[in-house]
Design goal:
2 copies of one chain form a homodimer. By secondary structure, chain A is an alpha/beta fold. Chain A folds into 2 domains: about 260 residues, Zn peptidases (Aminopeptidase); about 150 residues, Glucose Oxidase, domain 1 (3-Layer(bba) Sandwich). The first copy, chain A, has 15 helices and 16 strands. In chain A, the strands form 2 sheets. An 8-stranded mixed β-sheet of chain A has the order 1-10-12-11-13-16-14-15, with helices on both faces. In chain A, strands 3-2-9-5-6-7-8-4 form an 8-stranded mixed β-sheet, with helices on both faces. In chain A, helix 10 crosses helix 15. The N terminus of chain A is likely disordered. Chains A and B meet through helix 3 and helix 9 of A and helix 3 and helix 9 of B.
């Protein structure tokens, strides 16, 4: 009994104390990181937009393989998969009456197309998605539906769930009621003349209709025009197309650990981007952050657990990369998964999902993060989009939550460009990830599945 | 002598004191103004973009005549004139090598056109206009010139003079040296993916070449690509065209004064706008401000001097409206001229150009403006763009200087939309203009020409 107690005391005082000290030193050194910026600048400058399934995304994978190899990681590889691919075409809209003028908009991913010469129709206006859902078909049939809403800026980005619904299901709802097309107010919080792209979907049997997002100034302009209470006629031309199955892929790299039985730590981001911007915030920066942190751990000495870096393909258009990863690697022993996919502003909060056996890991991570201004929450970590399905299978997770106050100003817009990435905040992210990985990858505790 | 002194004392203590009291009361009431917003909202909603010489500008004039008549002004009229008119076409650009990707840009007014299928060429980069001017022809001939620069945000907007030169004369300079086309970094201070339009010119004998402004994120992206020190090839398609002489016009309205011999007070703005935004800041707001202030004076009782409101046409593309006004009305007795054409943010400074005989007018205006946070400068007023030529003939002027800190974020971009107008700051403008007009239109002093 005494022997056991002594062993337990040694465990508490030595391994964790050492790991924590290392984490602190690595964390502080990471505040001078240049690797994350180098990756973010490189992807966005040398590739630019990289819509999933296109040649541009393939160039991004080639870039990724070269970069991860040059950084010294092991097992650098591309894991290709096939996907249904949609590409943008012409997209214009104009008010024909009562006040002729153009409107700025962009097609939603998987939007149907108008004829090349466009369509003309009267607007049927619904202030919310619920109003569209409640509307009788007679109000919708043959019309160009316009749905507005009022998403608000929040630090945790939590309004995206509720207000994103208009984009995710609004088009299918409008189609079921016989709409000719649908326009939504962009799911965003900025007031620039840049519409927010994003995917939508039409279930089997629901006809894909033309579906587009108006920039927020344009949506408010259209609302003002509608308030004049005259019929509003629009001309809309959208010519996107489905190009069939094409290749995408996940790029993977590793820092091999000393104890394969301890399970691997997966750190993820996504390499693809929407096509309007250069995907700096969403999500080149995420790839820069997790990779820079993994490299810092690698350079400090071999960790106990293998760190696996996943630059997922085809996230934006349907989480194809995350699904492909789960199919291929879901059976492997993952100790923990974590993803960076919420911009590049400072981490302000950490959420945990850990088994009771690893409760002390959360405490040590919390301690290591505190000097960076990061507080522990009571919310359960869910992982980012590419690992959420994996995490739902029972894998432990840590979410390093970034400040999202301006995230939905930039998200999926032409404005998602390198100038939006603040190098100082980017380094704070790398420091947070480095501290977290230093603790987790070396934790002596078992990090098993979580109920 | 005593009689004269008494008369002077009476003048100092009665008329001006009374005028000043009126000015204060009118000023404070104007802080609840709705007319300026109503005009700004109306023009931008019911007309939208209104490029000079086009059918949209004609609709704006019809709107203006209705509105000014409804507000109760006298002598409401359109004074048409003919102008050379340029309209936008297709405008796209893409980097072909080494890093294929699209760039966001817009043609400059009076830009030449590429063939419909576009042109391809290598970039010749110049960090400044001076570097382009100094370059030998061999560095420019047959190339797509790209000129960058570094305009800075200033409250008084004073960098526009120097940094606007790249737009005004850069294209002609590049053409003279044999460039195939020219791209400039937008003359602006924002980091949105919205290029800044604006006019350029090609003197007689200088071939109009395709000329466009890149958005600032795109200009910086192109600079980063160029730093990789590989030849950069671009494809550029710009298909604007000159459509010949068309009609524009100045809309004029008046508040008739009681003393025609005292000269009229001209208050100006411009009705046309660039075509990318809805011209809310530039310059629907200006028309709202000067008109709302004139209406407040009219409603308070007949002023001594006639107040003439000028909503000038075709300012953006070459000051055609201002020139037409000067030709038609330059011989009339103007006591003073003033223009609002620098957005809708609060007035922070007042500049004067007054004859010595009217020095006390400046003092009373200064006193009336002080409670609004407006300080008097030592700079000489020059008038706004539509009245500057008139003011140079010797007419007195007052400039109510607006805070321009964010003006060049919006100027000539798609982002110049109603949401950028702050109703509270707009009202402060109306209050400033009302106070100024209350003093100037009623001043007992003679306001004659200024040397």
């Amino acid at each position: 009994m005494l022997k056991t107690l002594l062993a337990a005391t040694a465990l508490t005082l030595s391994f964790p104390a050492l790991a924590q000290m290392d984490a602190a030193a690595l964390r502080d050194a990471a505040l001078k990181d240049d690797v994350a910026w180098d990756i973010t600048e490189g992807i966005t400058t040398e590739i630019g937009p990289r819509l999933a399934g296109t040649e541009a995304e393939a160039r991004a994978r080639a870039w990724a393989l070269r970069k991860l190899t040059a950084l010294g990681f092991s097992n650098v590889r591309n894991e290709p998969f096939q996907m249904q691919t949609w590409v943008r075409g012409v997209e214009t809209a104009e008010v024909l009456a009562p006040f002729p003028q153009p409107l700025a908009l962009t097609a939603l991913g998987n939007s149907g197309a108008t004829p090349a010469k466009g369509i003309e129709g009267e607007i049927a206006y619904f202030p919310t998605l619920a109003a569209l859902e409640a509307a009788p078909e007679a109000q919708v049939r043959g019309k160009i539906v316009f749905v507005s809403h009022a998403m608000t800026r929040t630090q945790d980005g939590s309004q995206y769930g509720a207000y994103g619904a208009v984009r995710r299901t609004g088009p299918a709802t409008a189609s079921r009621k016989g709409a000719a097309a649908i326009l939504i107010r962009s799911v965003g919080t900025d007031y620039h003349r840049n519409p927010h792209a994003g995917g939508t979907g039409f279930p089997d049997g629901v006809k894909p209709i033309p579906a587009a997002a108006l920039s927020i100034p344009d949506a408010e302009q259209l609302e003002r025009i509608l308030k004049r209470e005259q019929p509003v006629r629009l001309k809309l031309t959208l010519t996107p197309r489905q190009v069939g199955m094409t290749e995408s892929g996940n790029v993977i790299a590793e820092v091999p650990g000393s104890d394969p039985a301890a399970g691997l730590v997966l750190v993820a981001c996504h390499l693809d981007s929407w096509d309007l911007g250069t995907g700096a915030f969403d999500d080149a920066a995420g790839c820069g952050i997790v990779t820079a942190a993994a490299k810092r751990i690698m350079d400090a000495g071999q960790p106990r657990r293998t760190i696996r870096i996943l630059w997922a393909g085809a996230e934006e258009v349907g989480l194809f990369g995350g699904k492909a990863y789960l199919e291929t690697h879901g059976g492997e022993r993952h100790a923990l998964a974590s993803e960076s996919d919420f911009g590049a502003d400072r981490v302000w909060r950490v959420d945990f999902k850990l088994p009771d056996s690893a409760a002390a890991v959360a405490d040590r991570v919390t301690t290591a993060l505190a000097p960076l201004g990061i507080g522990r929450s009571q919310q359960r970590a869910g992982g980012g989009p590419d690992i959420a399905a994996l995490v739902r299978t029972g894998i432990a997770a840590i979410d390093l939550k970034q400040d999202g106050t301006r995230y939905f100003d930039l998200h999926h817009t032409p404005d998602d460009t390198l100038d939006k990435v603040d190098p100082v905040q980017l380094r704070q992210n790398v420091a947070a990830w480095t501290a977290m990985l230093a603790v987790v990858a070396n934790a002596p505790e078992d990090i098993g599945p979580v109920k």
